[in-house]
Design goal:
CATH topology: Aminopeptidase
Order of helices and strands: HHHEEEEEHEHEEEEHHHEHEEEH
CATH architecture: 3-Layer(aba) Sandwich
Strand content: 25-35%
Structural class: alpha+beta
Distance between the termini: 36 Å
Radius of gyration: 19 Å
Number of strands: 14
Number of domains: 1
CATH superfamily: LCP protein
Number of helices: 10
Mean pLDDT: 76
Strand order of the largest sheet: 11-6-1-2-3-12
Helix content: 25-40%
Length: 308
Amino acid sequence: MPRALIVALGFILAGLGGLGAYFLPVFQTAANSTSASDGLPNLNPISAPTQPFTVLLLGSDDDAKFVPERLNTQSMILVRIDPNTKQATMLSIPRDLWVQIPNQGWGKISWAYQEGGTQGAIAAVESNFQVHVDDYVWIGLNGLVRLVDKLGGVNLQVTNPVMDNYYPADLNTTDPYGYYRVAVLPGATHMDGVHALQYVRSRHGDARGDFARSERQQQLLLSIKAEAAHLNAADLPSLAGAFNGEIKTSIGLDKARALISIANDFSGPSVHRIVLVPPYTSDGWVAGQSVLLPDWNQIRPLVHKSFS
């Protein structure tokens, strides 16, 4: 399999929450077929995308504490890809953002998925941020762990230490309500799937709260992309079978294939990362709970500039 295709798969794996692995059996079959052409010989040609498009990435805590069809989204990231300018933008949406949710009323934006599924989450993002969402990708906790492990781990430069005495001990356990201590020290480090999940999921003991966690999540996505560049064709079948229902997406095969042709155009410097720190948001207290209050007069011009 050509190196460009491997890197392209890495782009999809990172930027679209693991979508590339969902289609890896198709890519593997095509790569093993005999043909004089390079790439995906048994599939009809697909033109590279030319218009910008936006994908909503959703991540949920889906351990045993939660009813499978009643999950909150602990992570929401808008990703916009512009093939013409070869620029990408990641905008992290705070889970505690207090918004008006279509057909539900006022609430934290993370509730939109719980009540309305993917369409409810998309509607909440579109109506409040005034942006069009083309597709979505949802990933669960074990999906992220399996992805990172199948890649052989990720390399990260930790600049903001994590010290969490109340990290949930809720994966692969009979007691999903337990806790344990997590510590991630500053410096260069190599993480397996469990430790990568701890790094991006931990939210206690950090003075910057969810803002710091959003930055860590974006950092991990870029690290996954870098590690995926080292894949070999022999790695693809096991990677493809790793997720076992931990990923859901609206993106079809043709669009996934089209992304391959532009994957190498995007690298760290071409990815703009946005976290809605103050003054875009402020702490508030509504209906007896801590929330983040948005300043739409500042947020919407920023979104319009980056996503239009």
